[in-house]
Amino acid sequence: MTTAQRAVALGLAAALIQAVMLIAFAWPAARIAPRDLPVAVAGPQAAAVAQQLAARDSDAFDIRTVADESAARAAIDDREVYGAIVTGGQTRVLVASAASPMVAQQLSAVAQQLSGASAAPVQDVVAADPDDPRGAGFGAMVLPLVMSGIAAGVLLTLLITSVAARGLGLITFAVAGGLLSMVIVQGWLSLLPGSYPALAAIAGLVSFAVAGTVVGVAAVVGRAGIGIAALTMLLIGNPFSAATSAPELLPRPWGTIGQFLPPGAAATLLRAQAFFGGAGAGTPLAVLLVWAVAAAGLLGLGVLRARRADPVPAGTGELVTA
Questions:
Q1: What are the C-alpha distances in Å from 207 to residues 103, 118, 148, 191?
Q2: What sign for the dihedral angle of Cα 56, 60, 65, 70?
Q3: pLDDT tens digits, residue range 173-210?
Q4: How far apart are CA 129 and CA 209, in angstroms?
Q5: Is the bond preceding 253 in cis, omega lying within 30 degrees of 0?
Q6: H helices within 57-162, ranges in order?
Q7: How far is Cα 316 from Cα 319, in angstroms, rounded to an integer?
Q8: Is the distance from CB of 210 to CB of 264 less than 8 angstroms?
Q9: How big, in percent rounded to 5, are the helix, strand and coil portions of the chain?
C-alpha cells in the first residue's frame, strides 16, 4: 500500500469512527423515554391511576401498587421505584431527584396530566445535592473517571515494559485516584454527600476496573487490546451509562447493557452510596468487582506469558568453561 493509499484509508477509518461516535452519543439522548420505569401508586384510587398509566403507554411504566404513602416512600428509599403517585384527596407526587432528576421531572408532568390539576403537589423525598440540583455535575463526573482510567491504562501499557510493574502502577493509580477524585468531587465541588472513605473506595474501584481492563487486554492480545478496551469503555460504556438520565429511559437493550459495564455500574453505585445509604448497591458493586477481578486475571496471564517468553532471568547465562 502506497503512502497516498494509506492516507485515504486512515481518513475513511477516522470518518467511520466519527459516525459511530455520533450514533453512540447522540442516539440515546434523542430517544429518551420511559421504558418499564418502576413507579408506585398508592391510595384509594391507585387502581384507576394504574389503568390510566397503562392506557397512556403500556410499555412506559412498571406499575407497582403499594398500600399507602409510607409504603411508597419506603419503596423509593430502597430504590425499588423512582417515584410514586399517591391518591386520596388531592393527588400527590413523590419523586427522588437523587435517583434521576430527569425521571423526577417526567413523573411530575405525567401525574399532573392524570390528575387534571395545573400544579399537583410534588415532594422530593430523596433530593439531589443542593449544589447540583439538576444532576449536571454528577453526569459530567463519570466521563472524567472513565477517560482518566483509559489514559492511565494506555500510559502504563506503552511506557512500562514489565507486565508485573504495570500491576503496581494500576494499584497506585486506583488508590491515589480514588482519594484525590473524591477530594475534588465531594470536598471542593460538593456534588456528593455521604462517607468520603466509601466514595473514594468506589472511585478507586472504578479507576482500577477501567485502567485494568486496558492494561489486561493489552497484556494478552498486544497493543491492539488498547483500542479494544478503550473503545468499549468510551463508545459503549459511557453513552449508555445513564449517568445523566436512568437506564429505563434509554433505548433497549442498551440501557441494561450499560449497567454491566464499568461506567454505568459506577454511576449507579455512586448514587446508591451517596444518596440512598447503600440501597441498591449490590448489583453495580458486583459488576465492578467482576471487571476488576477479570482485569487482574488478564494481567496475571500476561505475566505468565512474559515469563514463558523469557525463561532465563536477566543477568544469568550459561557458564563458559575453558
A1: 28, 46, 8, 19
A2: negative
A3: 999 999 999 999 998 988 899 999 999 999 999 999 99
A4: 27
A5: yes
A6: 69-77, 101-115, 136-159
A7: 9
A8: no
A9: 65, 5, 30
